[in-house]
User: What shape does this take?
Amino acid sequence: MTPQSTSFNLESFDFRGFHPKIFIGTASDRYKGWIGQIYSPGRYESRITRRTHKVGKQSFNEEVLPIESVEEYFEHFAILEIDYTFYRPLLDKDGKPTENYQVLKQYRNHLKSTDRLILKVPQMVFAQKIRKGDKYVVNDEFLNPDIFINQFYKPAIDLLGPTLTGFIFEQEYQRKDERLPVVKISSVLDTFFKAIPTDTRYHIELRTESYLSNPVFEVLEKHGVGQVLSHWTWLPTLKKQWLKSGWRFFNKGKETIIRLMTPLGVKYEDAYAKAFPFSNLVEGMMQNEMVEETAELMWKGLKQGVKMIVIINNRAGGNAPMIAQYITKKFLSLR
Assistant: This one.
């Protein structure tokens, strides 16, 4: 379990050879703010695209590198979470490729055989409510296995092959007056996972704390689906989430995903505004407990023979590559 100390250089943001059973990556890529860290200065200057991104009541002028920059990304990281697949499937209802499929196909053209991707499952499959305009409405396709299989799962596997290493089913936070009873949510999850292909790459992120309960964990264990440990606004700490499951890892592929999304108690829009343009850590934003518990959980997983995947979002502290440095240094200090 000793890190391969001769194969990586933290100061150069080289996390690829850190440890054979630890995969450190980020939620999305292509950020201009990472130039000088992950991306070479001047290399993409004439091909940076600009777009306006509205978050809450504010608008931000984002600058995005071309897709080919993923080749440089994978010189530093071994894994990448693709999150735009959350917003639409890969095929439409008529079986025609969507824009997401075309973008993912471009990514595939720049991947090596050793690079690994995690995809977020479309919200139309796993969200109880989805946003339409300025409102959230009931999702009539919630846990529809046919949509998952035919419009997402099969085309993803056909397109990405062995580079696809995980699926994240993220369910949005449920307000108290909208939540399904725990027995009901566990039942519908059981029915869903019975209806889709058996696969060792499934992981669930439930953002409603009351759903982190034994009936749900029994379903995860039954189907070998991993519990995503998520450092996110309204969830308890990472260790408390794992404690709720009885210190168990459920994924049949012996993999666990830790997602560092936002500081605890901080809303998405506030975290985004503080972190933007994602070029440096923001003073006082990254929570020490997040770093310490992530490092501890990495060791706990390794001792149980589990491959630990740590996915870091800029919003967790301002700059994902620099957060990764803190986590790996903390991990090394605990050995």
